[in-house]
Design brief:
Bound molecules: flavin-adenine dinucleotide
Order of helices and strands: EHEEHHEEEEHEEEEEHEEEEHHEEEHHHH
Radius of gyration: 22 Å
Distance between the termini: 67 Å
Strand order of the largest sheet: 6-5-14-15-16-13-17
Strand content: 25-35%
Largest sheet: 7 strands, mixed
Number of helices: 11
CATH topology of the largest domain: FAD/NAD(P)-binding domain
CATH architecture of the largest domain: 3-Layer(bba) Sandwich
CATH superfamily of the largest domain: FAD/NAD(P)-binding domain
Number of strands: 19
CATH class of the largest domain: Alpha Beta
Helix content: 25-40%
Number of domains: 3
Length: 392
């Protein structure tokens, strides 16, 4: 079905490069349009969990992942102020063939870009798409240069502010969750253990793990605050701000923060999942548009799954397009396989801002409270959380 088919992918990020390779390996002729003038990434880490690693292996990139990534041995929940470990997820129990890696984002993009080129994908840089018109006889792309293109099938992997998502669904209304994330990379201490440490405290937490053979340490520090912050990576912040926010944390955490040079601040926004993930053109059924990755379902970083889900989308979309000759049926099957299950009333009413913020805080508070109370005798929980000597 895909042999010789011309497909244009918007965006050379994780989703775009992965789907480009997956489609090209199935015989499609794939072009990727990327707005940046070079394939480069801001320095930061990602956790590629077993689900994402399985896709990379299926794409023939498992060995490259093993070289670029650092195999994780566990995830530890740590009380931020005291530095005491309260719970550990031991990853030595992963099944044979499963892996969990810490990867520098730039290294993941490099290996995916090389993989795409090796499969015959053409990556065109400095090609910013400014418009996508879903004409009845097929999509029309407009580039910033003013050029109009008429590719048969367009796949929007153009991230949070996707042109393709807007063409399929209209504008979305994201809102600030009252949480911000600082990101930084610092030199790792010699012998840094390959563990993701989650240092938790009221209203804030910090995730850190080593990268690049243990030479660097990735830091993501999240704080709840009412001051509004822009969404996006390009915003630098004074490193003093993050040090002040975590000054009540253990010396280990403060030592990392003291080393920060470049510090990036990101406002966490809640975006709804796109209601429509693909559509075939009514007048030309072999032409159409699909979306994946953050373009379809932007995620908050708390479960470290945005990139992993983008990889899963890429695999399922390519496999569905290859298996089903009718584009409309294939796109419906792709959305059914990947989008959240329909609820009793669909689409569900959007959550109120207060409900979303409250849910996030409650979830983190429950983890923190559970971690502190774990293993304590009945009645010890109140004591552990408040420091009170009064036992209930
Ligand atoms: C603090 C933080 C920590 C995270 N940690 C993890 C983690 O540990 N594990 C994990 O799985 N995920 C993590 N994520 C999420 C993950 O980074 C994203 O979900 C993932 O990068 C989405 O990939 P994507 O390809 O859909 O979008 P992107 O990576 O945003 O790529 C989109 C690409 O499209 C290009 N583009 C955009 N618009 C246009 C246009 N108009 N024309 C042409 N090109 C365009 C962009 O330049 C970019 O190259 C984290 C995110 C954050 C913010």
């Amino acid at each position: 079905m895909l042999i010789g088919q011309q497909i244009t992918v918007l965006g050379a990020g994780i989703a775009g490069l992965a789907v480009a390779r997956a489609l090209a390996l199935r015989g499609a002729r794939v072009t990727v349009l990327e707005q940046a003038d070079a394939i480069r990434e801001v320095g930061a880490g990602l956790q590629i969990t077993p689900n994402g690693a399985a896709v990379l292996r299926a794409l023939g990139l498992g060995d490259a992942l093993a070289v670029a990534g650092l195999a994780s041995s566990g995830v530890e929940l740590i009380d931020g102020p005291t530095g005491a470990m309260v719970a550990r997820l031991d990853l030595s129990g992963l099944r044979p063939g499963q892996s969990w890696h810490f990867v520098h984002r730039a290294d993941l993009i490099d290996l995916l870009a090389q993989g795409a080129r090796d499969a015959g994908v053409e990556i065109r840089l400095s090609h910013r798409v400014t418009g996508l018109d879903l004409a009845p006889d097929g999509p029309v792309l407009t580039l910033a240069s003013g050029t109009a293109l008429r590719p048969g099938l367009v796949i929007g992997a153009d991230g949070l502010h996707s042109v393709a998502r807007a063409a399929l669904n209209g504008p979305a209304a994201p809102f600030f969750t009252r949480q911000v994330a600082w990101r930084a990379v610092v030199p790792a201490e010699p012998g840094a253990r390959p563990v993701a440490e989650v240092h938790m405290g009221p209203g804030r937490h910090l995730v850190s793990y080593p990268l690049r053979g243990g030479t660097l340490r990735n830091i993501v520090a999240v704080e709840e605050r009412t001051r509004w912050v822009e969404e996006g990576w390009a915003q630098r912040d004074d490193d003093l701000e993050v040090r002040l926010a975590f000054e009540g944390f253990s010396p280990r955490v403060r030592g990392w923060l003291d080393q920060i040079g470049d510090c990036w601040l990101w406002g966490l926004f809640r975006h709804p999942v796109a209601p429509v993930w693909g559509r075939a053109a009514p007048g030309a059924p072999a032409r159409g548009v699909a979306i994946l990755g953050d373009a379809a379902h932007p995620t908050l970083p708390f479960l470290a799954q945005g990139a992993n889900m983008a990889l899963e989308d890429a695999w399922v979309l390519a496999a569905t397009l290859a298996a089903e000759p009718d584009l409309g049926v294939a796109l419906a099957a792709y959305q059914a396989a990947r989008a959240p299950a329909p609820r009793a009333s669909w689409p569900p009413p959007p959550p109120t801002r207060a409900a979303t913020i409250c849910a996030g805080r409650c979830a983190r508070w429950r983890i923190w409270a559970w971690a502190r109370c774990r293993g304590l005798p009945r009645g010890g929980c109140w004591h552990a959380m408040t420091g009170s000597t009064v036992r209930t």
